[in-house]
Amino acid sequence: METNKEIITDLKGLINIVNDGKEGYQSAADATENASLKAIFLNNAAQRLIYEQELKAHLLKHGGNSENESGGVLGVLHRTWINIKEALSSKEEVAVLSAIKTGEQAALDKFDECIKDQERHADHLELLIRQRSGILEALKEIEVLHQQYAN
């Protein structure tokens, strides 16, 4: 029973971080006037919405539910995405991309914590690995864009 509670806690944490990412990307898309960045941000926000739905399905399998429809309050993880809002006020692409990089790295760290416990997450390990891979690909793209706009 204790293991199931831990699984539910982990899944809720992942749902929070993908929600934070979704909101961060949506905020970035709303604030930028750069059409190519807007498209990338909207695509990543849509990806996070799918991740959220997939994670919630596994949460339900374990008897949990997530009331969180608007991101989490996971301390540092949440604050990394909040930094995007501050960066948006300057409307500088480099600042926004930098904040997104920080948020994506925090998301990877959270996924890594869960993936490390393969036994506990055996029934949805493949999902976690796939989602982590998607976040890593998004991070790599953001890092390339960050380099382009920084120069």
Give a count of the beta strands, DSSP E runs of length 2 or more: 0
Mean pLDDT: 85
Q: What is the annotated CATH architecture?
A: Up-down Bundle
Tally of distinct domains = 1
CATH superfamily: Ferritin, core subunit, four-helix bundle
- Principal-axes shape call: elongated
| CATH fold-level topology | Ferritin
Structural class determined from secondary elements: mainly alpha
Low-confidence stretches at least 5 residues in length (pLDDT < 50)?
A: 69-79
Helical segment count: 5
Question: In CATH's first tier, which class applies?
Answer: Mainly Alpha
Helix content: over 70%
Description:
This protein has helices spanning 2-31, 35-61, 76-90, 93-116, 125-150. The longest helix has 30 residues, at 2-31. The chain has 151 residues and is mainly alpha-helical. Mean pLDDT is 85; it is low at 69-79. The termini are far apart.
How do you describe this structure in short?
The chain is mainly alpha-helical and 151 residues long.
